Amino acid sequence: MAITDVPAFTHLTDADIENLGFELDAIRADIEDSRGERDSRYIHRTIAAQRALEVAGRLMLAAGSRRSAWWAGTVTLGVAKIIENMEIGHNVMHGQWDWMNDPEIHSSTWEWDMSGSSKHWRFTHNFMHHKYTNILGMDDDVGYGVIRVTRDQRWKPFNLVGNLLFNTLLAIGFEWGVGLQHLELGKISKGRDDRAATLVRVREFGIKAAHQLIKDYVAYPALTSLSPAATYKSTVKANAIANVIRNVWANAVIFCGHFPDGADKFTKTDMVGETKGQWYLRQMLGSANFDAGPSLRFMSGNLCHQIEHHLYPDLPSNRLHEIGVRVREVCEKYDLPYTTGNFAVQYGKTWRTIAKLSLPDKYLRDTADDAPETRSERMFEVLQSNPELGYTATDPTTGRRRGLNTAIATVRAWRRDKRSAK
Amino acid sequence: MAKHEVKLSANVADTIRPDLARVNQHPAWHALRSVAERITTPLLPDDYLKLANPLWSARELRGRVLEVRRETLDSATLVIKPGWGFRFDYEPGQYVGIGVLMDGRWRWRSYSLTSTPAGSQRGERTITITVKAMPEGFLSSHLVGGVMPGTIVRLAAPQGNFVMPDPAPSSVLFLTAGSGVTPVMSMLRTLTRRGQIGGPGSIVHVHSAPTEADVLFAGELAELVNTHDGYRLSVRATRAEGRLDLARLDDVVPDWRERQTWACGPEGMLDEAQRLWASEGLQDRLHLERFAASRAAARGTGGTVTFERSGKSFEADAATSLMDAGEQAGVQMPFGCRMGICQSCVVGLLEGHVKDLRTGAEHEPGSRVQTCISAASGDCVLDV
């Protein structure tokens, strides 16, 4: 039934959680104090390189008549759009570069290259998702209202076909999912919306989306059709595919952040009187990283460090890697899980969960208290009810306090044994 | 609060779009830009062009430092070539905001222009400012000693009411001290260019500086004395002669009451001038310029928060967030998470300093701040 009591689930005392908060605050302070010219140069170069890449892609599409040139142009444009949306747009809108006091690279002025408006994104993502991360009934990113991503969500007949179908459609048309999220079509259709507010949002979205559509499907094709090497249609196709490349990639990276095994879900009770330390814990437990080298890190907009990003949404993306080293140490110290894994494996797990959850609960083996995608403090009841496990709060040989990691491992081992004994 | 209510009550600030109104001086270019914007949206053509040349963008005013000319031991003149969108029809005596990149951050200060406006005729397309390094002013020291030719700076449009009208009044007194001579220099150069320096006695200039060697533009002012009968200069070296006592102004400029006076210098001198002119009922003949820009932050004391666009203000203590202050004053403040993570509430800080309640960091005027986690540090003005 998802986590309802963060301290109980994490096996930490109030004092532990407070100290954890201080340690994580200290990491923030160190990064803030050391932001400077090097970081500023990084984002300026990234932006310049992205714009150059985009121009290069568009030129290849206009000038090359060969099939290989078309593909090169399309992929280059897709990559440019990925970098613009992920390493630049998403991060700039989080205010990661506001400290530079540069009005051109600022959360309050950035508009990104996709159909959704940045104003709506700051609401649905920066506010609702990052504040109420993984809280069922508060964070709409838990399944976006159409996909059952945790067994905490009641099964509905449309999940049977819809889960895999909508997941596929969302991946392909991700920019439209993002763009429409704030419009809340479901509520509009049921007449449960505030009409005046809806009209304003529809207008804002409509203007932004129209500009994007005209650019990619009217203006550029018309321009490139003047070139003997390209046609109107070849450019329309190339731009559409570039957009889809970006959509599928962005969707994959984002799904790896909160839907692989081990990324926990929470109930509204967690929010009540939540301390800073508990907020940090919820962000850590609700997010998952994936292992990445420098190029995958860059192409994911540094969201391979989803845990660090959720702890410090407004610290510059190029610093998340070094922050990660320290966060990991903190996790080890407090015996907390630090969920990460190979990118393909993590993404595969999100599909596996979504596929499984298209079925009603009676076909599922695990309960919502101890499943790959969601857990609750109740999963540890077996530690008390089975004295033969000999589980105590401290390790008798090392004297070290046992935390969440050890407790999860003990419960897992017990379940494995029980299953093999059958 | 339930999700539904959270969503209904939220008020996310609009994304600020580039203000290109000022580039309407070139309608043809503007039309071309609008067409090209169809393929560069959501960016402007300028955002690509500036990568080739930083001055090829009208989105933000920029300039390139062409030359840094040492004036005295601790002051220098910066010759700046502004980029697209800068208007040269400013008035002599106005000041310009200048943003300099230091340690990755843009920091802003205002300085008087010392150049003459181009007016309608196409003059040389540069502006100059003259900066005196202040003992605690790290930015002014950087401008005097650390800026290399070729550096790109940000500019704000010239503004200010301390200006010389055209045509100039027939009888003028300039009362300046230290770097207070800078706006007057622009006026003198403009009057010279326009041929508006009249017959003997038309302009009297009383200038104070610690020593003769500290006098800014000493050579140019001496040249002016030599070439124009109408310009009389009286320099007071205060370290040797002591400060000018305005009560004895009659000794230096017997006819000061008949003159239009422009005064610029330290706060104390200006206050004294204001009292003197007021006591004689001559306030309308006195024009003052106060350099308040370098005033340091009042370090977490709270203060009066003024909300520029709504015209409201609120007396806030050091622990009250600007957002709370605004809401208590009845201002429609943009907001989201109220915990400093979502950037929904970011607004411009026009004047004064604010403090980040989480880290204690001070933000300067000219920056944009998250109102939910910032408090007034002295009086401040917000663009909301």
What would your notes on this structure say?
- The complex is a heterodimer of chains A (about 425) and B (about 375).
- Chain A has helices at about 5-10, 15-35, 35-65, 65-95, 120-130, 160-170, 175-180, 185-190, 195-225, 230-260, 275-285, 295-300, 305-310, 320-335, 345-355, 380-385, 405-420.
- Chain A has about 425 residues and is mainly alpha-helical.
- Chain A is globular.
- Chain B has helices at about 5-10, 25-40, 45-50, 140-145, 180-195, 220-225, 240, 250, 265-280, 320-330, and strands at about 60-70, 75-80, 95-100, 105-110, 125-130, 150-155, 170-175, 205-210, 230-235, 260-265, 285-290, 305, 310-315, 345-355, 360-365, 370, 375-380.
- Chain B has ten helices and 17 strands.
- In chain B, the strands form three sheets. A six-stranded antiparallel beta sheet of chain B has the order 4-3-6-1-2-5. In chain B, strands 12, 13, 14, 15, 16 and 17 form a six-stranded mixed beta sheet that branches. Chain B has a five-stranded parallel beta sheet with strand order 9-8-7-10-11, sandwiched between helices.
- With about 375 residues, chain B is an alpha/beta fold.
- In chain B, β3 (about 95-100) and β4 form a beta hairpin.
- Chain B starts with a helix and ends with a strand.
- The model of chain B is unreliable at about 295 (pLDDT under 50).
- Classes of the chains: A mainly alpha (about 425), B alpha/beta (about 375).
- Chains A and B meet through α3, α5 and α9 of A and α1, α3 and β4 of B.
Summarize the structure.
The complex is a heterodimer of chains A (about 425) and B (about 375). Chain A has about 425 residues and is mainly alpha-helical.
DSSP strand tally of chain A = 0
Largest beta-sheet characterization of chain B: 6 strands, antiparallel
Residues in β-strands, percent of chain A: under 5%
| Coarse shape of chain B | globular
Outline the low-pLDDT stretches of chain B.
293-297
Biggest protein-protein contact in the assembly: A-B, 57 and 46 residues
Radius of gyration of chain B: 24 Å
- Measured as a percent range, the helix fraction of chain A is 55-70%
Q: Helix fraction of chain B?
A: 10-25%
Instruction: State the oligomer.
Output: heterodimer
